[in-house]
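Retro notes, item 3 of 5
We never archived the inputs for the zinc ion complex last cycle. Fixing that now. Sequence and ligand:
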Amino acid sequence: MKRCALFLPVIAVLACFGFCFSSCGSSTPSDAAIRKNTTNAARWLKGCSRISWLPRQVSGRYDGASAFDNIHQAAAGYAAKRSSYGTAPGGYVRLNSRMLRAMRDLAKRGYSFRVTSIAGASHSSDSSHYVGVAFDVDTINGQRISYGNPHWRRFLERCRELGATETKGPGDRGHSTHLHAAWPRQYYYQK
Ligand SMILES: [Zn+2]
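Structure as it came back at the time:
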């Protein structure tokens, strides 16, 4: 009986720990769960015929950090490669899962589009591309981005509905021929 009385508090403490861990786990997704989300979304995107991925930088460079390279790296469960020229810092970054899921939503809504940059290329210093939360698009539904393109405003509006907090397009400096959409930086995961 005495031994039993000793064990009871131990069991109670263990049960309490177990409850705490399981409840914490359910309220805040773990890094592993977020990475799985990212990988699954990237796999879906890689196989989606509505989205094409520029296989080189807009500048013409082939450096293993194109939009095509980045989506394949993310689909394989790896961090995405950044470029190493201009202001680009080099190295690798985990792509943001909300951004990838937003791309999936846009494709499911019927948009076809070409992604020209994710983590690669040289952008303004401190660009959101370098932390894996931004993507650029130069074509929607077969039409290149310009002020007169009938799709870009609604496309960016949908990005904002899906959580993008930084959107640029025709009318914004440096964005007359491409769109830029970025998500909050607290979601980025550095390798
Ligand atoms: Zn951009």
